[in-house]
Write a structure and sequence with these properties.
With 188 residues, the protein is of the alpha/beta class. The chain is 37% helix and 22% strand. Bound molecules: glycinamide ribonucleotide.
Length: 188
Amino acid sequence: MQRIAIFASGNGTNAQRIMEHFQDHPKIRVTLLLSNKADAFVLERARNMHVPSVVFTRNDLYDSQHLLDILSVQCIDFLVLAGFLWLIPGYLLQAYPSRIINIHPALLPKYGGKGMYGMRVHESVIQAGERESGISIHYVNEQYDEGQIIFQAKCPVEPGDTAESLANKVHELEYKFYPEIIEKVMGS
Ligand code: GAR
């Protein structure tokens, strides 16, 4: 059995889909959820799915290798970022080469980088008058949103679309594709 740890900071609708997708999978399971926010709703989702969770601080992530100890003890094979907003430190990248992936709610390399997350991304896309947006699933490296792109899917931005309506379209793409791309990348 290959074991996934999900990193998430917020609501966790993607984390939910991923946990559900793998809950009866013969070879892959989500066995840990990590969050930097003690009040993130994703923690309740994990509880409901009987997935253990860990809340960690900035110090845990950047000033020690505490997280690596947790991941090792739990025999985690693969890290999935799903609405996680902090940069992944070098020691984790080295411990999980080509085994950390992220989803971004736009067509990278546009509308990525530090501070570009969630609704801010959609507001920028609408403001720029783009005719299409979408999702990018990519390997994680030491820069925000710059790792090698694995998969993209597009949706139209129509006249009258708001950041909210665009977010809904993009979320639908995320739910449809992220679990299956994770499965492909993990080789099952
Ligand atoms: C998702 O749309 C994800 O693509 C985005 O945050 C949202 C989290 O929603 N991630 C980023 O913007 C990363 N730069 P969720 O918590 O409901 O899954």
